[in-house]
Write a structure and sequence with these properties.
With 135 residues, the protein is mainly alpha-helical. The protein contains five helices and two strands, in the order E-E-H-H-H-H-H.
Length: 135
């Protein structure tokens, strides 16, 4: 059987003209705040606050830093600043280590030479003797 696979599923649907539902919601929220401020403030204070509210509302609706919504970016920034930065190393139990080591050796057949302490000492002596002979 042949099935049609939907494409572009990560693109939001346009609700009103070129605006998505989230963008329209942010702009509507800004309009509601402006309506409330219009009833509470005098004309000069309202104009100043209208510029600020419109800028913030427009930024939440349209600005996407690092290709993610501004609200998610701000939330992630706050969580990064407030959460502790302590990373704790936890020892892996031996059973898991052995099982993962066995899987690694089974999947990768490499011819890697292993050296123990005695072999390393012998090699270092040889190198020291060659170095002393050259000088």
């Amino acid at each position: 059987m042949i099935f049609n696979v939907p494409q572009f599923i990560d693109i939001e649907d346009k609700l009103v003209g070129p605006l998505t539902a989230k963008q329209l919601g942010w702009l509507a929220l800004g309009a509601v705040v402006l309506l409330i401020l219009y009833g509470l403030l005098d004309k000069s204070a309202f104009l100043l606050s209208a510029i600020i509210v419109a800028t913030i509302s427009g930024a939440f609706a349209f600005y996407k830093p690092y290709n993610q919504p501004l609200i998610k970016f701000i939330t992630s920034s706050i969580l990064f600043v407030t959460r502790p930065k302590m990373y704790i190393w936890r020892r892996v139990p031996e059973k898991i280590q052995k099982a993962s080591a066995k899987k690694d050796t089974d999947t990768k057949k490499t011819t890697r030479k292993t050296f123990d302490a005695q072999k390393i000492a012998d090699i270092s002596q040889l190198l020291d003797m060659r170095n002393n002979q050259n000088h």
